[in-house]
Design a protein that fits this description.
The chain is mostly helical. It has two domains: 2-345, no CATH class; 371-483, Tetratricopeptide repeat domain (Serine Threonine Protein Phosphatase 5, Tetratricopeptide repeat), CATH 1.25.40. Helix content is 73%, strand content 1%. It contains 21 helices and two strands. The protein has a two-stranded antiparallel ribbon. Helix 1 packs across helix 15 (323-334), helix 16 runs antiparallel to helix 17 (392-405) and helix 19 (429-449) runs antiparallel to helix 20 (454-466).
Amino acid sequence: MLAFLIGLLVAAGPLLRGGWDLWAQSFLFLAAVGGLGLWLAARIALGYVPLPHARTAAWAAGLALLAGLAAAQSPVAAFSVGSWRWLILGLAIFPALSAVSKDERSRIDEALRACAWVLVILAFYQHSREHIGRPFSAFLNTNVFAGTCLMLLPLAWQKRDWFLSAGLLVCLAWSHSVGAWLGLAAALMLTRRQTGAAGYWGGALIGFFCLVAIYAKLKSPDVFHRWQWWVAAARMACARPWFGFGPGSYAFVMPVYQNPGSDLSSLYAHEHFLELAAECGIPYALVWSAGLAHFLRRGGSHKRFGALAVLVQSLWDYPLSIPANFWLFCYLAGSSAPQVSNGVNIPARRKLPAAAAVLAAAAVACAWSWRAWAADRLEAQAVERAARGAPPAQIQELLARSIRAHDDAQAERLAAEMDLKSLPQAASPEEAGALAHEAAAHLERSVALNPYRPSTWAALERLYTQLGEPDKARAAGERAARYAPPSAAAEPAR
């Protein structure tokens, strides 16, 4: 059962747009947590529960706790808690693998091989039939797909699936990702240094051409933009060194910490460790790095190769910021953990309460995730009906249900827009005033959930001015200056 759940994350995740969309994350979270709860309950009923390696479990639990604290105290906690959800799924893979046998890991590898074939066939279809020069397969970005190819390539090579290996290499060539090829070169040099001169010097040759390509790009916008994103991430980490701004917060906070006058925006820092320090804190980044060094020193050659390659690429791109790639990376890195035979016997009198407690905890976690998913679906329906010109009252009803299910800054802002849109239809000045004040309340909740969106602050300040409340308008402007100064002109997508 554990092998099936891990295989579901690492093999199905890449096919679901990399698990980037909320619906894909929610589906996989529900399946993984619900399945884990059923597996634990079944093991308790049998009277024996296998235990993971103690140090691995402590390391993963400590990271999950640090990331949870970062999410809880985040200025955009409503979003960070959702990002923490997929982060802990990846961390859970490390201790879970110690209870998975060698044969079960082989079956996971076969599922990954099937996933790789689907991704490669889709990329070839996009290139040949849709005439996409840099096919992205099931992902949203070509460089992210290149990172997935880096991790799947050594598994295909290990299985001696030469056609799949060739297809993955062609996809890497199509990606034009210098970071991916540099990762491939570094992995060849690090893992083939003692086992084969051809592989080592082949990696050195690839690395040389990559460095030449990077040198040629030194004055290009790609390098300049990355430097700006890295500087912003470093400033964020220095501003809140212990717990950062929360998982997934970079896109919201980055505009405040970029250079004055810059209008760049990005969802990710394009540098894995800087992004971790900015979002989860410097202690989290250090503990994560130390654990990875331990696992990657012990790993098997092929899986360690894939993990090292994508880790090097992540110093320049953001493949590990995508949930499915992160889960796959955790599987490759964690596969060095040997299977353990330790376990705990459950006395007969404790079986029922222990199983009930596990199932209750899983049900609570699944219900929490389901509410967030349901709220997102209701918000999407409201946006769709607004685009079709539906009556504001109908849209408001959907948004009210969404807000009751889950806090969301965008839903609150849309609700305010619908209130203001209803003003011309107000039956009396009193009703119009009530609608305007209700819109102000929605905007206040929106800036509380995401204080880093300048246009929401501007709308709130303008509305208070129109309501004849200059003190509140001035206070809104002063609060906005702390979170979104004039230099922060760019806004994240959500």
